[in-house]
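retry 2 of 3: previous attempt timed out while embedding flavin-adenine dinucleotide. Reduced batch size to 1 and resubmitted. Inputs unchanged:
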Amino acid sequence: VRALRTKCDVVVVGGGAVGCFTTLDLALRGVSTILLERRYVCSGTSGRSHGMLHSGARYVTTDERAARECIAENETISKIAPHCVRDLGGLFVSLSEEEESYHESLVSGCLRAGIPARNIDIETLRALEPNISRDARTAVWVPDKVIYARELVTSALTAAVARGARVIEEAEVVKIHTSGGEVVGVSASHPGGPLEISCRAVVNASGPWAGRVASLAGVEVDVVPTAGVMGVAPANLTRHIINRMRPPSDGDIIVPYESGASIVGTTAKLVEDPDNIEVAEEDANILLEEGSALVPALRTPGFSRLYASARPLIRRGGDEWGPRASTRSFEILDHSEEGVSGLFTAAGGKLTTCRLEAEVAAELVSSYIGAPRGGFTDRLALNKLDTDLVPNIREAIKRGDVLGSFAATLSEAMDTIDSERDAHLIRRVLLLSRTRVVSL
Ligand SMILES: Cc1cc2nc3c(=O)[nH]c(=O)nc-3n(C[C@H](O)[C@H](O)[C@H](O)COP(=O)(O)OP(=O)(O)OC[C@H]3O[C@@H](n4cnc5c(N)ncnc54)[C@H](O)[C@@H]3O)c2cc1C
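retry 2 succeeded.
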C-alpha cells in the first residue's frame, strides 16, 4: 500500500467539539487545515455528554472562571446555532436543610458571575414540575438549556468544509514529526493506507486522549481522563433541567433531552484508559438512588440503557486534587517551552465552552504561523449555509473530495428548495448516512 502524501498549514487532531470548531475558526482565517479523526466525528466525549448547555450555575461556588465562560458561551451558542439548542431553563431544587443552606451561596454566586437567577416559590415549582419530590424545599431558576452536540459539531464542520477545510475520518495520528524542535508533519494510519501530512503546526484536540497524542511528539500533558456514567430513562419526567441544590456531586442532574428520554447523571471516577470505561451496576444504583430522590417517578421506568465517557480534566496541585474539585475551565498549552514549537494542546473545558476554547487555540496557532489574528466564530450563523458557499460544496463533490454514498445524498440535499436557507438537512443526511467525509 502506497502512503498518501499531502500538505497543509495546520493539522487538527480529534473530531470532537473542540477540534471541529478549531478547524472552522482556522478555515475562516484562510488557513489550510486538515482535521484527522481516528473514528468518526463526535465519536468521543462530545457525542456522549449529558446534553447540557450549562448556564454556569453549577460551578459558581467551586469555579467562577468556568461559570463565567459557561454563561457567555451559553448566550453565544444559542445565537449562532439556535437549531442545536432547546431553551428549557434549569431549576436547582433543595431537598434538605443542608441543601437549603446552599441556596443563598448559589444565588449570590450566580449574580457575581453574571448568571441570571430567580427564586421560585414552592407552589410555582410544583405547578411547573408535578413530578418533583414532596421533600422539595426551595428552588432557583437559571438559564440551563439542552444542547444537541452532534448537530452543533457537524454544523461547524460543514461550514469549515464549505470554506476549504479537509476532513479525514478513520485516520489515527500515530506520530508527530519534528525537525530542529519544530513540528513538520504527522503520520496517521487509515484503512486506505498510511497518511503522511507535512504541516507547520498541530493542534492536539483529542480530549481525554490528549496525553497520549502529546506523547507522540515526546511531550507530557497532565490530562486525567475522568469517567462519567449517565442513565437514559425512557420517559418524560420533567419540563426543566433539574439540578440538585448542592455543590457538584454524583447523580444530581436530570435532563429532559428529547421526547421520551430523560438523562440522569453523572458519576466521576478516574480512569487509566478512556477507551475502557467500565459501567458498573453500582453506577446505575447511584444514579437511580440520587435521581429518584429528586423525581421519584424515575423509579418506574428505571434506565433503558447506560452510557459513559471521559472528561479531559487538567491535573493541578498536589494530593488534594480530585475530579469534582478540578477546574472545568480549559487551557491551551504551547509546547514550545518543552522544546516542540508548533504543537498546541487544547486541554480541559466543557462542551458548552468548546467554541471559545477553539478560538483561543486558533488564535495561538495563527500567531505562530503568521495567519490573520482575530476569530469570528462567535458571529457566524451556523443554521444557515450562505448562498455563495453552496457552489463550493458542489465543487468539492465534483472533484471527488467527498467520497461514498454521502456524495449522492449530499447532492440531492443541495438541490432542494431549502439548500441555501438551511444547512440543517444536509447535516442530518451527514449524520444518518454514516458515510465518512473524505477530502484529500
Ligand atoms: C460524563 C460526561 C458528561 C458531560 N456532560 C457535559 C454537559 O452536559 N455539558 C457540557 O458542556 N459538557 C459536558 N461534558 C464535557 C464535554 O463533553 C467535554 O469537555 C467535551 O465534549 C470535550 O470535547 P473535545 O473535543 O475536547 O473531546 P472529544 O469529544 O473526546 O474529541 C476528541 C476526539 O479525538 C479523537 N482522537 C483521539 N486520539 C486520536 C488520534 N490519535 N488521532 C486522531 N483522533 C484522535 C477521539 O476519537 C475523539 O473523537 C461532559 C463530560 C463527561 C465525561
